[in-house]
Amino acid sequence: MLTPGYANLWVHFYPIGNTPAVSLTQGLPPEKDANILLLGCGDIRNILFTVHSDKSRRMDVTCCDIEPAIIARNILLVTLIVDDSNDHGNNDNWDMYYHVFIDKTCHDRLQKQAMKLHGLAASLEAWREGDYGNLVAFCDSGTLTRVAEFWAFYISAATERQSWMKKTFRSVIETRKQKRRDTGLTATGVRSATPSGMLAGLELNELHEHFWKHGTMYMDHVVRSQATYANPLFASPGSTVKLHYAIDPLLGFHLSTAYVPLAHASQQSQGSPRVSKTEGVVAAARAEFLAWSNTFKARGRENVRLRFFAGDAISFCHTLQHRHVTGSERSAHWYRSRHTTLEPLVLIEDDYGTDGSAPVSFNVIDTSNLIDHVGGLNLLAAASPLLDGHASSSLYTETLVQRTHSQQEQLDQLLGGHLPTSSLLLGLFPVEYWTNTCHSSIGDEQLIRFILSQQEETTISMKQSYSRVTWKRPPYNSASQMERLHMDEEELAFLLYRVYVEMFPGENMERMLSIASINPESTLHASFPTYTRANFVSFLVLVKKRIVACWDRAIDILLARIECNRTLLTGRHYMQELYLYMHLLDIHSVDTFRSFATRDIGIGTAPKGVPSAAYWQNMPPSVCITLKVPRSALRVFTEPDPSTVGNLPVHGVVRDSSDRFMGWEHYFAAVQLGFGSLSTEGVPFSNTFELSITEDHKGWHGNCFCMQNTPVTAGRFTRQLGLDLSIFKTKLGDTDNVYISKNLPNQTGTITVPAFAEDAFASLTPEPVEFKITVTVMINPNTARIALMTARLDVISRILRSALLGSCPVQITPTSPCAFIVTVNETPITVTFPVPVIAESVRTRIARTSAYIELTALIIPDPAVYPSATFTSPLLFPNFPNSTTNNPVPILWNNPQTSLSTAPIISLSNPSALTFLPVHTGQMFSAREARVRSNPFLLAAATQPERTRIGLKESLYVLFMQFSGLDSKRNPTSRRNEPIFALYNPIAGACAVSMFIFPSTLRLDLARRTVLLDCAVLPVTYGILPTLERSGFLAAVGDQGGVHIKVDGDELRLWKEVLPAWVERCRAGEWAHRERCEYRVGPGRYRAPVSVEAGQEVVCGCGKGVFPVGWEVDVPMWEVVKRYCVRAAISPLFANALVEDVMADVETLGLTLGREKEGKGDGVTGCRNCAREKSREGGELKACGKCQKVRYCGRTCQRADWKRHKKDCIAKGS
């Protein structure tokens, strides 16, 4: 449809996930039900883990995946889980879902369940009335049909398909051998073992090799020998889907439980102490899967509703948008898949009709790592409008493929420009970026990168670097609706032009040639474009609804810039496609379209037997051209081995046949490919002419289109197809192969891109209120980045207008990097910017006669340089309370909810087994912070906020080291004498000890792959200080001894800002906020903390004294002070890689792992970077291609040395 067309001769099949399971509901308050949308859902791990971690929440989960095989196997597993009343099937379920080869018992059970499911799938009605109708639903009839075909395949695989599947699996094994070619270790398991990744030895690599050698994770030869059946859950009936050669059953689990010593209560995850390391890792994964399954079995039918769609994520999102905007229409005239089908996507009536109950907006959207493959702007423009307006709602993206040096550079590239600027246009707020705080370390990603950097260069097309980003709605001035932002049309046009140019890097030949020698991976990436001009226009649809400007003038300026562009070599050939979609999607109509209705065409009746467009009555301004390509023209692709052809971008070309070299030529990249038999209805060249195509499901290889010129396709097919790479050519008058119609085949209308619904925005003409706020964005013309913002507060209230005229005082008070309180005549008004600004830069204009106040501020250019105490881990409140209880519902902005009851307890009896902990907690300090921390001169030169943030991390490091016993003299075998921690400010007078921390246990936070301290916190206030003294508590604490963590006033205030979030994140199921919660500061207004002043309350009293039964802490006179304490989950605070380097780079990491020092070699007798005397392949060293003076062992070392060699190389070559 709008995205690039691809000739997908074959695709990789990913039946199991390759990243650890995440908690999907970690951003939602406990009181809120979850409406979840999973795009590129993959296997079932995230759903099972979320249900296990968040047992009591009701969840409606809509799952979308392009592969129906994924959905078929997921439904088969969850139905087996809920049917397993006696727990006899747990091992079979694991084997069935994760092993390529299974035994007869497991195979028979699979067959039986497949037959049951296939019998229930006779129709949508039959499914709804069946055993699983209340648990599993289908979004459209096509999904049920496709999934049922796979269940039928599972049944047929009992006998006749066994030999074929075994042969297929063997071919995948051979492919894997060729890909790896003795490349060394497989490092991705380290990610699943975080935070203890450094403890993971060779066993993870051994287990990976074992799986690919035997197809199972069983170590016992006798058990393994019984697995003689090929598992159809890892196969597909066609030859176009191939099992990926790097899947690993263990990667989706949290393997730290196999390496970190656990307390007795959590040891079920570690199996028998007598098993080998490899068996222990497998046992840990199996135990976690068992725990997930048991929870889902107990809670699934009651709390969970699963909906499935098999098709393209972009198409699905736009169709859901259309249903949300219209309230009833179930088709937006998209096809269900963008490459090989012409089946329209129509949602089912019962769930998505006018009275349907299926959600069409969501408070959780997870996109897996689709952003790596479909284009960031495509994905976010499609998904962002589906995110509901609640402040807690979150959209998650993951990147796994590393194409650039830094994550920030990569996200800028994926979004077509500056991350903060692009996200503002999309109506999204990248939380970790603006707060520069996250709760997962990517330190172990550095270890993975280092290991991969040592592998055979020719086998690694793309490096891996895992990153997960949380996107929320920007802060609002209204209750739950975005404000439209205002922009100058010239600035808007310039910004959109820069996005346009960045969307098509492969067309910029000068840019491509400049980077090809340094980074050939960029050339490879450009060979697989993710955008078309139609995609750019769909992005404009969203921007038009988000930004208020003189739109026609902005588009006129934009088109003038695009038409004059000469950097995009083929850009002029795509102009007609750009004009076409601007018209179709109601963005702008150029003169050709505006004047079309007055043209003198379609007059009279065509002569009999002579159909012609000249006689088309009421011809629409745009038509669809369907080109029927004979099978013979596709042999260039279908006759070779598909794996040697790959996936190739294609497009359509319409050209002037009168002059090949001087005539016009127009390219259309937004093409839809399909296979099948074509039939027509109605009179050709009329509005009644319709095309129907009956799909041939065999696709490229069944019996029943021009290729895009990119570096890959040009080099591979020029000889067979010529310089223009044409697959098939004909003339428009060829009525046997060319069909022109009003609508697309099988469709009854024009494709729609609704973007945001009107109710997503605050009304531009609100009902009578006291004031109105308008935010205007200003762009730096040199960088195309947001630079300034102006918030204009128009006073509407007669009382306030009179007060302004009477020269009443106006006070501006910052409350966060985004929010200010404007007090007019003692009336506080909150003015919120959609991104953080520099408070010191705010300039105020008060127009008393015109009754408005303007605040103009600079955008924070670098969150690392401007850290904020209130933004490190904020607790926010929407402007409306719980709808049922009228109690406040705080929102964790970037500090995730956690389930302490499911977090394994770490044993502290042997501190020497916790060597991972100082490394992991030390990763809190970014590379910059580490330099500042270790250099007194840099520390003195740092700003006070920077020193305060470093101080907080130092205190957290002490807290974890002391309690774990890694930096204390306490007896590790004694339950008594657990350290008590006190935050101590020696100049604070009576409240010198401002806060006590009483640790109970150290736990693994599996969802974030980190650790957390389960503790009680006692904020010391003037109100309770006499009680603590009279009761003898302070004296008893002094006798027991403890750890005094010295803090200054600024750091103490930062502790108080963060503490409410640490408390809030672990209250689920234990307590709720009361209507008279101390966070209330006025009618409908709340703030946390209560206060940061000395001796004042910090957290509300709603959760004080509430602890689970059996919860223990080693504190004297606990029963006396318990009622003043509150439970908290304290975890490390890591910097974010989107903002700054979070650790030293791979080369520096190499030094710590024993790598030779950089630059040791002389470049003549040994590699200039590592001193090797032979290449990595064992051959001769290779000379620098430019100067031919120095030698390297391979491309990795040449790249690593380039910064040092560059100046010298240019000098010698000149």
UniProtKB/TrEMBL annotation:
Ranges that cross the membrane: none
An example Gene Ontology molecular-function term: zinc ion binding
Highest rank taxon of the organism: Eukaryota
Pfam families assigned: DUF4470, zf-MYND
**Alphabetical UniProt keywords:** Metal-binding, Zinc, Zinc-finger
Q: InterPro entries attached here? A: DUF4470, TF_DEAF-1, Znf_MYND
> Does rRNA-binding show up as a keyword for this record?
no
UniProt cross-references to SUPFAM superfamilies, sorted A to Z: HIT/MYND zinc finger-like
Spell out the PROSITE patterns in the cross-references: ZF_MYND_1, ZF_MYND_2
What is one cellular component GO term in this UniProt entry? nucleus
Looking at the record, the residues that make up the MYND-type domain are 1167-1209
- The protein's name in its UniProt record: MYND-type domain-containing protein
